[in-house]
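Consider the subject:
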Amino acid sequence: MEILFLRVLSIIKGFFSYYLVFIMLIVSLFTLVVDIPKLKKGNFNREANIAKAISIIYIILGPIIYILLKKI
């Protein structure tokens, strides 16, 4: 079980790079600045709230996961 966990962790470490975090942040900020106002203007308030929550989660968790994986 431990070997499987270490193998999966090494795959995730290889996938998560500085560039991936940077792109996640850019996409999240774009969603917050551009997409959410358009959704609210089109009276899609529920979708705007969902997009806002996902964007904030990406902005917070992206760098945290990157830092944690680099320390392991």
